[in-house]
Design brief:
This protein is α+β, with helices and mostly antiparallel strands and 567 residues long. It has 14 helices and 31 strands. Strands 3, 7, 8, 9, 10, 11, 12, 21 and 24 form a nine-stranded mixed β-sheet that branches. Strands 13, 14, 15, 16, 17, 18, 19 and 20 form an eight-stranded mixed β-sheet that branches. One of its GO terms (molecular function) is aminoacyl-tRNA deacylase activity.
Length: 567
């Protein structure tokens, strides 16, 4: 491919709207252009990377026994109403009416559509197991699209769905997809971790794992044990804290005044109280039902865990007017004693020897409050947000914190959708049973951004060979020099004959412009044809390491072919 004919326009200035390296570099390298917030056009350079990733995904999905389909982007609202997710999914679900006033959605995911397909086509256990997948454009009306294609409103996703007759079959399908995902991300040249995860809006009560590309700009926090294989998204992670299961205090609770102290920080600064010893009580609405939640003063409520414990669709903090009506006091003085609403207690609170708690009257707290003696609870569980330094629940080692970009997620759905949409089969005894489902997603377009985040320097992108838009970038320094021009052309021809993808920079530009653009675009191997071609030598530069080697054209061709084929 001649660069003078290639539709790519690099940018010298850093776009003002780009917050992270991948967004800046993808714009500057001419890979993408924004149409509207969260919606991008892929230019040829970016689309070539996208197609490379899609090819890897297809190869591994096909190798795992999955079959490719293509489902519609437009879905009827009736299917979402039938599954029960019409109200649950929230404002991210992009809804619209057609000319006949029928409600439709642009699909953010395809559980309903695939289940509807299977319920009309599958009748017998003889047709199972089966895994279907697609690579499809999805739409989510993000409240704040950001980071370029990393969190966009329109994006490309691979979603797969497995259908089995029993849980053992689901385990096999899940394991096959899990292993395929590991191979996909390895082939894309990514450093990743697999972590336990919350299934979120997809639902299902079985296992769930996320595949996280490690990156400082990742929007997810993961906690990892360095001593064992425990790793989890902070939404699900558990960690033991010091002081759990200590001896109970024998002191009687003692009332004391705390005028004007409404926050943990004020209690600490004015009265010398250690936040770990304070029992903080917050009032939530869980599906519009009030519930009090008790955690330690230095902890935060993990609302994902709270929602799961309560079996609620949504939870949100109550406003101060509601808190006053329910407790008789405002923020800062609510305590766990004598409440007229259900109380949920975090495990760390339930195990405290004693603590300081609000007195449910203005400017009053109590010392020596003993959980289980001075107050009881309606439910107890791990509802705090775990953090670095907590002890691993498996081996006790301190947990470490990392940032990650979620690029894949696998779920055991069970019968959540098959029961709701009546997708069933006849077993070998003629008994009708719901199919057992799994769901497996990969953010294909997000993988591009994740790869750039892990593979870049201050000059530009450094593509891993398997997903690079081209394998080799040939750079004649001076096109007016016939020897350089002819040598560059011959290198391109010989490499292309060997099956190598080559971009020839045949533009009439200064050498510095060519070299800067080459580093920005990040093609793994640069062959630079300059004055030393008169000595029968060209420079071979490896973009990732910056290593430069002087080789004959024959040696350069062999080295480039070997580098491409060795991965």
């Amino acid at each position: 491919m001649r660069q003078s004919h290639f539709f790519v326009q690099t940018l010298r200035e850093v776009p003002a709207e780009a917050e992270v390296p991948s967004h800046r570099l993808m714009l500057r390298a001419g890979m993408i252009r924004q149409v509207v917030s969260g919606v991008y056009s892929y230019l040829p350079l970016g689309y070539r990377v996208l197609r490379k990733i899609e090819a890897i995904v297809r190869e591994e999905m096909d190798r795992a026994g999955a079959q490719e389909v293509l489902l519609p982007a437009v879905q009827p609202a009736s299917l979402w109403q039938e599954s029960g997710r019409w109200d649950d999914y929230g404002k991210e679900l992009l809804r619209f009416e057609d000319r006949h006033q029928r409600m439709l959605v642009l699909g953010p995911t395809h559980e309903e559509v695939i289940t509807d397909l299977v319920r009309t086509e599958v009748r017998s256990y003889r047709q199972l197991p089966m895994t279907l997948y697609q690579i499809q454009t999805k739409f989510r009306d993000e409240v704040r699209p950001r980071f370029g294609v990393m969190r966009a409103r329109e994006f490309i996703m691979k979603d797969a769905y497995s259908f089995d007759v029993d849980e053992e079959g689901l385990d096999r399908s899940y394991r096959a997809m899990y292993q395929a995902y590991e191979q996909i991300f390895r082939r894309c040249g990514l450093e990743f971790r697999v972590v336990q995860a919350d299934p979120g809006a997809i639902g299902g009560e079985g296992g769930s794992h996320e595949f996280m590309v490690l990156s400082e700009v990742g929007e997810d926090t993961i906690l990892v044990c360095p001593a064992c294989d425990y790793a989890a998204n902070v939404e699900l992670a558990s960690g033991k804290v010091a002081g759990e299961d200590g001896r109970r205090s024998v002191s009687e609770k003692e009332r004391f005044l705390t005028p004007g102290a409404k926050t943990i920080e004020e209690l600490r600064d004015r009265y010398g109280l250690d936040p770990e010893t304070i029992i903080k009580v917050l009032v939530y609405r869980a599906d519009d039902r009030p519930v009090a939640v008790a955690i330690r003063g230095n902890d935060e409520v993990n609302e994902v865990k709270l929602k799961r414990l309560l079996g609620a669709r949504r939870v949100e903090l109550a406003d101060e007017e509601t808190v006053r009506a329910l407790t008789g006091t405002g923020f800062g003085s609510v305590g766990p004693m004598n409440l007229n609403m259900p109380l949920v207690v975090d495990d760390a609170v339930a195990s405290m020897p004693e603590g300081v708690a609000g007195g449910n009257e203005p400017d009053v707290h109590y010392r020596h409050v003993v959980p289980g003696r001075d107050f009881n609870w309606d439910s107890r569980g791990d509802i705090r947000t775990a953090r670095a330094g907590d002890r691993c629940v498996r081996c006790g080692a301190p947990l470490e914190e990392y940032r990650g970009i979620e690029v894949g997620h696998v779920f055991k759905l069970g019968t959540k959708y098959s029961e709701a949409l009546s997708a069933s089969f006849l077993d070998e005894r003629g008994v009708q049973r719901p199919v057992i489902m799994g769901c497996y997603g990969i953010g294909v377009s997000r993988l591009i951004a994740a790869a750039v985040e892990q593979h870049h320097d201050d000059k530009g992108i450094m593509w891993p060979m398997p997903i690079a838009p081209f394998h080799v970038h040939v750079l004649p320094v001076n096109l007016k020099d016939a020897a350089q021009r002819d040598a560059a052309e011959q290198l391109c021809t010989r490499l292309e004959d060997a099956g190598i993808e080559v971009l020839l920079d045949d533009r009439d530009e200064r050498p510095g412009v060519k070299f800067n653009d080459a580093d920005l675009m990040g093609i793994p191997i640069q062959l630079i044809v300059g004055k030393r071609i008169s000595e029968g030598l060209v420079e071979m530069k490896r973009r990732k390491t910056g290593e430069v080697t002087l080789l004959s054209p024959d040696e350069a061709v062999r080295a480039a072919v070997e580098a491409v084929r060795s991965v």
